[in-house]
Each structure stands twice: as C-alpha cells, then as structure tokens.
Design goal:
homodimer, Dihydrodipicolinate Reductase, domain 2, 6-stranded parallel beta sheet, nucleotide binding (chains A, B), TAT_signal (chains A, B)
Chain lengths: 372, 372
C-alpha cells in the first residue's frame, strides 16, 4: 500500500474544522483566460516514471504554458506505457544510457527529475551538462553538499534550476503570506509545523538511507522546514532537534522515524516542528503574531488546502498544485518571471542546510548555527 | 489592565473551530443531586486576597461540600471588604502576624494559599504547622527544593497538601483522558501544548523573579507541562528547552518571555510545547496517537473548554472549574476520595522538577534527565 500517496491525497482526518458561519470568502482568481494562450510553452521531459511522476504528468494535461513531451526511464516497459498514455513520440524517449544525447534534441526545454532523492544530484548534473533546464523534486538532494554541486553545475551550464515547491504557488498559502506581509498578524513570533504519516512497506526506497538521505525528515519533515520559512518570511539562524525512535527494526540507522525540531529566526520568532513516520494525517501549520494568527490543515497535502486566520476562513477554489506549478515554472524559465516565493536552487539549498543542521543537532544534542 | 485574567477568562480568539455538524455530544453529568447534600463540609480560609482569591471565593458560593469561612491577609481593608462580601465572622480573620493562631480555631479545616508563588512555601509550611490542611495554588513553589519542603512539612504535620489543579476535575479534559485510557487514540506518540498571553503591567509580581520564580513558564507554561502529563498519562524522563527573549527590558534576568520545550516520555511519546508572555490567547492542546487524536482550545482557560477528537466534538455543559475543584477537594480531604488525576503535593513536586529541568536545559543547551 502506498501510504504516502494516500496520505497526501486524503488527509481529511486531520482537516481543520473550519467555522461554517462567519467565514470570509476571498474571491478566487479567474480559473482560465477567455482567449486561448498564445505565448511560449515549456516542453518538459520527466525523468523517473514513478507514482509522483505520473501525478505530475496527469496534472500537466491541464497546463497551458507547459507540456509533457518526453520521458527518461531505466525501465523500457514504463516508457511504452507512458508513450501511449501521454502521446510521447519515440524521438523524445531516453534511457539512463542515452540521457546525455538529449542535448541534441531541440524539442525539449527542461527535464523534471522525479527519482529517489539519492539520485537527484547525479541526474540533475547530467541534465545541466546536456544544456537543458533542470526541475528537481524536493528535497533537492541528500545533503547540502550535493545541493551546492547542483547549483554550481546549473550555473556553469547556464541553465535554470528549479525545485518542485508546489506550495509556493498555492493560493491559500499565498493569501496568508500576503496577510502576514501586510501586517495582519502583527509581529510574527511563532510557527508550528506538524508533518507526518505512517509509512507502509518497509522495503521502499524512502526507508533506504542511501536513496532517501534519511527518513521522515527528508520526505515529510521538509514541508515544515520550508513552510516555516515562507510563513515567517525569514531564514532560520539556529536549530535544535530531538530524535525519538520507537521502531528501530523498521527505521534503521540513519533513517529517522520521529524528530522534533526548533528553528530560531533573526526577528525573534521561533518555529517548533514535528516530523514523523509514525502518526497519520499530520499536516498542520500555525502562525502566530502579536496581533493575529493563521492556521492551515491540511497545509501541504495535495489539497484541498484549508486555512483560516483570526478573522475567518480563507477560501479559494481548489487547483491542482502541479498544474499551477508547471505553468508558473514555464513563465519563470521562458519569461524570466520572479515568483513570489523563490523556487530556485538556492531556495532548495537553504532547506538542505537546515536539514543537515537538524541531523547534526540530533547528534550533538545542542544548538547548531546555520550559515547560508 | 489585568491581561492575565482577561486571557484566562475570554480566550475566544483562539478557540478551536469545532465542527457544527457531525458532532458527538456526550451526555452531561447531572449538575445537582435532587436531595440537599447532608455530608461533611470542608471549611476553608483563603490566604491572599487578590483577584484569583476572589474568583475562588465567588466560585465557592455554589459549592455544596466546601464553604469559605475565613480569610488571612496583610491588608486590613481587604479583610473588611471580604467580611462583608462573603459573610466572614471576625473570629475567622487573620493577618500574617496572627496566622499561626489559626491552630486554635476549630471552625477552619483548610487554608487555600493564593499568594505570589514565591510566598507559597513559607505560608504553606506555617499553615501545616498550625495543623490545617493546605491547598496551594500552582505552581506550588519557586522550585522543586521548596516544593519538597512543603511536602515534608505537611507529612510531618499529618495534614493533606493539595495543589490547585482545577483542570484535573474538568469534564471535557477527563472525558478525553478516559478515551486515551480506553485506547481510542491507539499508541499515543505526540502531545503539543501551546500556552501564552501578552502580559500587561510590567511592575506586577508575575514579572518579579523573586516573587514569581520565573516568568511565563511558572505562570502559563506550567499548564502545558502539567497537561502533557495527564494527556499522555506518563511522566517525562528528559527535557530539552530553548529560550527566546525579544524584550529584555520588560523581561529581566531570570524572567522568561518565551521558551519552547520538549519532553520525552518512557513509552516513546514526545511533547513539544510553547510558553510565552508575548502572544495572546494561546491555549491549545493536541494529543496524537497512531489511531486517533484529540485537540482542545481553549484547553486550560477558565472555560468554556472546547474539545474534539477524530470522531467529533466532546461537549459537556460548562461548569465553574473552581466550584468543582473545591467540592472535589472536600471529598479528598474529608472522605479520602482518590481523584482520577492526582492533585497532591507529589503531583505538584513533579511539575516543579520539570520546571527546574527546563530552566537547566535552557542554560546548558542540552538534554536534561528528570528524576522523581
């Protein structure tokens, strides 16, 4: 059973009970323009044809400014299936041996790397060297060192590097970030992120240190790390962390089951977060300032996201996160658009530095300062 | 402005948005017996006639098994006011010089000490030595050493020592504790307690280290500490803690403004808590197990308390906490009743050991083991 997919998809169990009355409904953005889109389209190949790759491919069917045109996989049967399902021409299909030849293909602009974390760095560097823009799923690498190599490789190859931070384009999230910027919550002093689900099959790559780079932290805790940054609007300068392992059989050396961690921010705010593979449907954000608060739950699942502030509910029609993400990434790559919350390699690198600091803090037991 | 009283009284701002539909309403306990109570009544004198003492006195008007019969105060004018307001006879009035003569008064069974924390120990020891049962407001002392002295003094004097843990008798709290004991939430692995309010007048005793024993932790953080214990049903064995101070002018040396702390429990559960004097209306509990969860907000204010589990809302008619507490404490003292969640000196001493460990962890930056 793919418990992770089920979790991110459903998560209804822990949904915030939003007030039925006295809600503030904000008018939704127009879903589609009236005239068909005429501008440039980002032509994307997906590398790694697992379940999340499939979710992205399905979501891209509704994209206007991005299009799935190619696939890269080590499994010939998967390539065949995808070709027929998504209409991929033979000339845009690659395996891991032929990948580097993609540089000669003028019909592919970017490659979206959706493999296990431990393979992100090598594939991203190869894609960059082949002259294609890189979109890489998060966490971008196993650690900050690898992440830095990816940033450097993309810079050297003069291609863009974007990380799959779908929440950075999610309308309820953005609305709450706007409210925080407008001072609606006053001086923000506390963020709480609870991220977790009960992971199933013990043989999956997510429980393999080499492929996953860790355990729950790399997979689901990263949402609370990244969320603390965009919700507070600063980057943390210190971290403390505590690990608890109730099942060392399932969660082997280097694979974290449960970690509580705290992040200190320059403005005096503190974040208190939980990352766990042993509690289900845990997906809650809470941002508190001296004048108001915001809370979200589900806060980072595939949606619908639910949010409210001290003034009432924040509602937008649900949009498929990956559809919006890929349309927006098209604008970032092809038109130089600056997203409101960054999604570039440097943004991903910051998260990896925080993850490294968390693992170090677990080991040392003390406060670890973070340098960017 | 008494921001604390306002906070504990209102706290509606951060109330959980409870589901209006699909709620599970549990039948309330019968509010009053049909025949008048005929049993023994605990005759109580209140020592320290501040705003909380007044709240207790008002609540006791509705008690059946306890009665306010005396006062002890250093301010003659206050004694006069209370005498007329609560019908206290002259022979049951004491000041801090005459307090010890209370031993010759056969009409007083117990003294409820409701002074600043720093005075609890000395007054409690004096009351014990005068042969009266001691009820002491929480936190029971400035530190565990003082708390131990109180326990010892009451033992030596063969009087009971109870701490004012009003939440231990609150019906929604007890219902959720029952559900946890019955296994409704499965294996409990996480508790989160957020406790805070913005404190007003900087000259009040609560911001005086000697009188308060600390800052927010002693005043409001104690709710999350104690709550973690009755919600999880175990006593923590380690603690880590991080302090943040944004206003050192208001919060002087030894007076904590904001502390995040984590408690590790023998069964593998972890608690992640916030104690702060810089965020308003913060009063939330969240208990999570591998089969379900409970949340409360307000969770420890004067009520109405709101609670729900993954199965729906938990509702009981609001009861005045201090009325129930004093009736129950009467049964504990006069009839030897065992409360479901202890309220004795040993219970208070545990909290003080945890507070001491938190302050130590803030200083050392590392994990501090707790011994009981």
């Amino acid at each position: 059973m793919n418990s992770r997919r089920n979790f991110l998809q459903k998560m209804a169990g822990s949904a915030l009970a939003l007030p039925v009355l006295s809600s503030i409904t904000t008018k939704a953005h127009a879903a589609k323009p009236e005239t068909p889109y005429q501008g440039p389209v980002l032509r994307v190949a997906i590398l790694g044809l697992g379940s999340y790759g499939e979710r992205v491919a399905d979501a891209m069917k509704d994209c206007q400014r991005a299009k799935l045109v190619g696939v890269i996989s080590g499994t010939p049967a998967k390539i065949k299936t995808w070709q027929s399902k998504y209409g991929i021409p033979e000339k845009n299909c690659y395996n891991y041996e032929t990948l580097d030849q993609i540089k000669n293909n003028p019909d592919i602009d970017a490659v979206y790397v959706i493999t296990p974390n431990g393979l992100h760095k090598d594939f991203s560097v190869r894609v960059a060297k082949a002259g294609k823009h890189v979109i890489c799923e998060k966490p971008m690498a196993n650690d900050a060192k690898e992440a830095q190599q990816m940033v450097d490789a993309c810079k050297a190859a003069k291609v863009k590097l974007l990380i799959g931070y779908r929440m950075h384009f999610e309308p309820i999230t953005l609305d709450i970030v706007h409210k925080r910027k407008a001072g609606d919550f006053g001086k923000v002093l506390f963020f709480q992120g609870l991220s977790g689900f009960i992971i199933g099959d013990p043989t999956q790559w997510r429980l393999n240190k080499k492929l996953a780079g860790g355990g729950a932290m790399m997979d689901i805790g990263i949402y609370s790390i990244n969320g603390s940054r965009y919700m507070i609007g600063e980057d943390p300068i210190w971290v403390t962390a505590q690990e608890v392992k109730t099942n060392p059989e399932k969660f082997k050396e280097g694979v974290d089951e449960t970690i509580t961690f705290q992040l200190g921010f320059p403005g005096g705010a503190v974040a208190s977060c939980l990352s766990t593979y042993s509690l289900n449907n845990l997906d809650r954000f809470f941002l508190d300032g001296d004048k108001g608060y915001a809370e979200m739950g589900p806060s980072t699942g595939y949606g619908p996201i639910k949010g409210r502030t001290n003034k009432g509910e924040v509602t937008y029609p649900h949009v498929t996160h990956q559809t919006v993400q890929m349309d927006e990434m098209s604008d970032i790559i092809l038109k130089g658009k600056q997203p409101e919350i960054p999604v570039d390699g440097e943004e991903g690198l910051k998260d990896m530095k925080i993850v490294d600091a968390i693992f170090q803090a677990v080991k040392t037991g003390g406060k670890v300062m973070i340098k960017y």
